[in-house]
User: Fold these one by one.
Assistant:
Number 1:
Amino acid sequence: MRKKRSCVHQGVRFRRRTRGASVVEFSLLCPWLIFLYVGAFDWGFYAHALISTENASRSAALYAANNAGTTPSASAACNIVLQELSIASNVTGLTTCTAAPVVVSLSCTTNSSLEAVQVTVAYTTLQLIPIPGLLENQVTLNRTTEMPLATQSGSCSIGS
């Protein structure tokens, strides 16, 4: 006659056979989890850089449009852009906007018979961890904002 085993005894035997399975699964999935974490981290930096560049361009265009009658200076617009991008570590300590990582240019345009000022900001991001096919090592973001002058005086001029 066969002896019946209790449920408790069978559960212990089952646990012995699968004791290392979770360690093996974790070791196989760990590189993928790290890869996903690094990708999310990089996307966060790129998204922040994109939003900051857009805000910097808009703020400089607003300044230039409101001060068009008094000849807005490119250096004042540069200071506004640097303040907007100040949280990025590769912008800390910059005083000019003529070379990478920040380049700012101002120009006057005429759009639908309205005079406007156009501000272009080019920002080169930090070197981050590249993900082949998705994210590059470094990206240059270009944002252009055009804003009509606050007072249509008939002449738009940009100072240095």
Number 2:
Amino acid sequence: MKFGRRALKKAKTRIDILNAVYRLTADMNFRNLKVKTIAEEADVTEMTFFNYFPKKEDILRYMMGLWELDLLVLRHREPLTGEPAIRRVFRHTAKLVKQHPGLMVSFISYLVTKEIAPDANEIEAADRRLLYPDIPEIYETRIPSGNEMMMGHLSEIDPSMDRTRMMLHLASCFYGDVLIAHTANLDLDWLYSGSLDLIFKTRQV
């Protein structure tokens, strides 16, 4: 698949803007972050910013889209099924949260208050090319949502299980443990691991 300069430039700008937000939210709450500040940090104009992200909050949906892309890449590089695959999703998420704790907590708060849609932004093929130049197989592949991936992995464990109920437990762990780790200064990997142990142990009883 060939990419023109324009498409790659647009992809780089989107990624640069997200990276600028990552840097800024290391010391500042996302809610208080001004678009002007983000634009200056990313070395773009405010008009350019809004051309890519009509609302500031759309950056969070783009971040979630890249998280789903990462999961697709992990699955491509090392196919896992069932419980090991689910645990890998949580390990990868913990890594992302540790890198950008403030932004991830802001993301959850926006979801709770319904200020952003729960679906991720679609990730353009050019963005995938810049981020993963060594995996052309993913450039045009549909990226499943996080929920789709998790539901699929639950089916791999036991097709007859009540997947909706299990998803509710996993979602509570996924979002709740982030907030607990943030407020209580606990290790998220440790919290996730313990919560998943309880969830899967309960299922077997």
